[in-house]
Amino acid sequence: MTDDWQFEVPTTGSKHLPPDARYMEALSSQGYGFEVAIADLVDNSIDAGARDVVIHFLRDEDRLVSLLVIDDGKGMTEEELDVAMTVGGRRDYASQALGMFGTGLKSASLSHASAVTVVSKTRRTRAVGRRWLMERAVNGYQCDIVAPDYAQTLIDRYAQRPITWQGTVIRWDGVKNFPRHGGGGQTDRYLHRTINRLGLQLGLYLHRFLAREDFNITIAVEDVNTGTEYMNFGVEPLDPFGYPVPGHTDYPRRFDVALPSMAPVALQAHVWPAKSTLDGYKAVGSVLERQGFYFYRHHRLVQAGGWNNFRQPDQHLSLSRIAVDLPAAGGDVFRLTVKKEGVDVSPEFIAALDDARDANGRRFVEYIDDAETVYREARKRAGTSRKAVVGPGKGFDPAVREAIEDELPLLPGEEPISIRWQEMDNGNFFEIDRESRTIGLNRHYRSAILGGRRGGLNDAPTLKSLMYLLLHQVFEKEYSGSREKDNLQLWQSVLVSAARAELERVGDDD
What we know:
8-stranded mixed sheet, 5-stranded mixed sheet
């Protein structure tokens, strides 16, 4: 081309193009996890000055019917509620507010429920309510006005628990992940798993708020017909830096990162004691996930672990955690994701980490060496020097993967070993595919081994753990020698006999 390049695109005017109503569907398809969505609602309660927040599961005998989040914050007037229920509604956020984009309430709720109702009352105004019903929302942004009498009834239902003179109730109906049929203990199992995960999520990401004496989160389960309360407990703070004694006497230590485009950012570098059994260390995630940066925005954790392209996760850095309080104006250096569960950092920050120093001139990279040394020394004192292995991947229960990663160093850069049930033409119990790093288990034996229980991707954790311990070394070599081939044949023979015995027992029971 001979034309000169134009650095600015010429325009001839502008045109108003409002979003199509289907944007609501896109808004509700952002991949919000259940626990992340609830945490987003609690953020709104904190911004409203709430002292008590109740997360209430309502059931009708074996069937879960609704989920509510109730707070005793300042509440909203009718005008404020309209703004809150408007997609991207513009409002002035306080300097320390946890909200940012004006989409959290709607996108978090409609990601998990077919309808979200919000009822609110201030000290000086009557109770008002609005409802987004997904099928109406996608038809021209039609938001329902809740009958005033019902709005007040819902406020009164939670009088003194926790609403006093003011507060807000968020109600989810048609929750997508609720068991459709609660019989056979499905509802109880769902509640046990979900509430446990929810308590850990809230305890971790809001631990600084929960550590205060004037803020509480309660999770409760109630039967709507009998009023029976099956469960009621307070969420405990889960401090990822809550060790009693550090793993290294020189830490915690502050390092300052000098950035060309903004004021220096402080890093609080910590070294956990080795082999800690505290929940603040063990319950955060796997050994590789829980190391690295913990970013906070206005005292709310927004990223729990990860190195943000500074380096790769490493078994030997499992004791390393760095707390970073994000500046109020992060500019282009720190960009918080909409769901507030991660931070994108610019190359400027990553490059500056190499030159970050503490008050005595010690470099941040020396901290990385210190954290690794503490881990290695703890291994030596324990008298163990275990050979690095190819780690477990898909098909293994997360708890199994975590235990293996805690106990064994992993070979860096290696594709993990997967395990899965598959059809086999022969009568073998297992097959090995070195190329795809897969252990195949014969699906013919699956139902007998599971004892009639429903299968899933991560089922049979005990069997799969044993198979990994037996076979992981096979994937660490290019071929099997005669001794290893003999062992494989031995294991195959014994396991086939055991599996057939399980099948016979199932037949006898029938």
